[in-house]
Amino acid sequence: MNQSRLRSLCLFQKFSIKFPKNESIQSRNLSNKIVNVLSKQNENSDQTKTSSKSSSQDLFELSSEEINRRLMSFFDEEKNWNKDEVITGRSWRLEELRIKSNSDLHKLWYVLVKERNMLYTMQQAAKDEVENMSSPERIVKVEDSMKNIEEVIKERNRAYFKLEVGPADIAERRRVFRRDIFGRWRWIGCSEHLIPYWMNAEWRKFNSPGHGPDVQDFLQRLREIKLNKEMSRNLKQQLYCQELFRRFPDLDVDYLQRRFPRVDVQHIKENLDEYVKKYPTKRFPNSSYVQSNKI
After folding, report:
1. What was the pLDDT predicted at 281?
2. Would you say which domain of life the source belongs to (predicted)?
């Protein structure tokens, strides 16, 4: 018997089929299977309809109090709002996380993500009100715990890859050294994409390497800022060494050279008078080494 005809008969007769006497056993089994599949499909469709209706009704029936209660999960407890210090525990250590299962680590990660979002919300609220956040070190503790969880997961992935694949492969996501949209060289993590790179024009607008005169101007100014910061740091270290030699002429040159490798300490010691004339310390009146000279 044709399957399409059998399907139409099943729908028309509401799954009540009477087989003739001369029909084979195989066709009967096939028709019974089709009837069971169709009945299950109808049941699933009815369930999805009822579930969608119930979910939409639940959304409409939500009161403002319920919405406020759900939104308050992004804020700290009300009793901690006016406190200057909130007593909290330390962050999770690697030794404590290594003995936990993967499911426990997944649950703990969800709890930490929720706590981190709450702390970020409280931090932004404190900034908007121009106030100090109570115990801001909680953010650092949560971030350290999340970093330790990620490190434990990487250790387990490395062990699994070494056992199953070999030591040549790594268990982390592959990264490539490429330019970002601002023309800066960055390590970018590779990920799977449904659309190829050359077809995804929307993704290339914000993630393709940056080119053009605007990018070149930005890179030039960025290099100038980095160079000025480096020159300022070297000059401050040079003045600091100069003031140390003025106060302590017998200071260990090797130790000072190891501490400031970018400064020629021996040359400063030999030509101290010239350095004092060239770089007077009056340019930095608020620095510590200038104030110590007045003692």
Report:
1. 53
2. Eukaryota
Closest residue by Cα to residue 253 from 243, 266, 244: 266
Residues 205, 241 within the same domain: no
Q: At 191, is the secondary structure helix, strand, or coil?
A: coil
| Of 70-79, 109-118, 133-142, 231-240, the least confident | 70-79
Nearest to 111 by CA among 92, 130, 84: 92
Which helix (H) or strand (E) covers residue 290, if one does?
helix 288-292
In DSSP terms, which residues pair with 185 in a beta bridge?
Answer: 179
Establish if 67 belongs to a structural domain.
no
pTM over 0.90: no
Residue 105 exposure: Cα atoms within 13 Å on the Cβ side: 20
In degrees, rounded to 5, the angle at the alpha carbon of residue 227 between the alpha carbons of residues 223 and 228 is 120
78 lies in the same domain as 148: yes
For tokens 């340019």, the residue is 283
Residue 196 corresponds to which amino acid? P
Asked whether residue 57 is assigned to any structural domain, the reply reads yes
- The radius of gyration of the chain's CA atoms, rounded to the nearest angstrom, is 35
Domain match, 48 and 130 both: no
Q: Does 160 lie in the same domain as 81? A: yes
Domain span at 187:
177-209
